[in-house]
Write a structure and sequence with these properties.
Length: 122
Amino acid sequence: MGGAPSTQTGETRRRVAEDAGDPLEGLGERLAAQRRRVEEGLGEARAGTHAAGRELAQASRVQLERSPYWTLGAAFGLGWVLGGGLPAKTFTLAAGIGGRMLLSALVQDVLRPESPESDADG
């Protein structure tokens, strides 16, 4: 009596597993495809980073030629802040004020009406 139900339950489990398919089947191929996608994404990110680095280097050279003392001061200040010379609360406060000033300047620039002199020149 106890042996028959176990056999049926075991048989049922086997059929369900066969119908569902093996979840590990094709796992290697799926992992290889995922790896290729990740490598492609990393390659694109690397190329973008290199391009941005080249642009930053070029802009730095131009700025250094135009205003060498300003560039030196900016580099020194940035190094000092990133090196921990500025307390976090002070940096947060300065960044907030600077952000507001930048936003204000952008809004004023966008909302500034066209001057009549520019229309007369046209």
